[in-house]
Amino acid sequence: MKNQFDYYHYTMELDSTSIASLVESPVPIDQSPIAFRKIQCFSCNGILLLAYNDIIIMWNPATRESRRIPPSKTGGLYNFCYFPSIEGYKIFRLGPGVITSLSNDMDIDIFSTKSNTWKTVGIFPPNYYFEEYRIYMSDGIAYMMAERKESENCTILRFCLEREEFLEELLIPNTISPRGITVVGEKLCLIGGSLEDNRKIRVYCLYMKETNSWNKILAIQLPFKISLKPLSFIKDGGIMFQNYMSKNVFKAYNSTTHKLEKVNVAGIEGLHFIQVVAYVETLSSPLL
Where does the UniProt annotation place the signal sequence (predicted)? Predict the structure, then answer.
């Protein structure tokens, strides 16, 4: 019998019905509850990035190839992206740097799979508070929810991994109460509540290659205290959600009926998932 601190990786199709398959982890998984809460997982180009404690792994579950990344500094928040121009990946880290009595800044470090080295390229802007517990990545840009110290207004900071510098901040529409950001289908999405009715959740999608403007793609009336995270676009323009407040892990928004529907996934009954990451299977190698 599995105890409450046994952790495993599963893969499944994000569709109306699916079957989950257990896959072998590329490294032994730390079974402690502390490690469980610290696991970070991201996807890009068919590759997964796993990070917890001082273990950082790039892994393709389809081919079972993996690559161990040397740690930069202790702890931190990660994400990564692929750059065709260099035929390699860059890993972004935000976390504690060299702590002295005069400074408690968070360093920004970048790892290149081409050079197999880390370098510190800056610090988190001191005139902002970091508001999230994750870094989000889309089109080579790292996004971070933040609050301006001077005004206490929420905004989104952007760091370009190709140029290795911060870009102009991304403003949040003043018509919503922001609840967070995520990436769906390689596009940055903003989740927020309606100012008229905070139980109506709205999802905005940002199209970076056009006008850097938000386009509302969804508004759903949700029961009180329900917690959903958009995962992926599915057939017929629907969206798959991870449900944090129920034993039923997934919900699908039907764009025809405009309703949330239960998604049955065989093989995961009774399991709790700390993270669910959408990715497209490829034969890409993490060894680049």
Answer: none
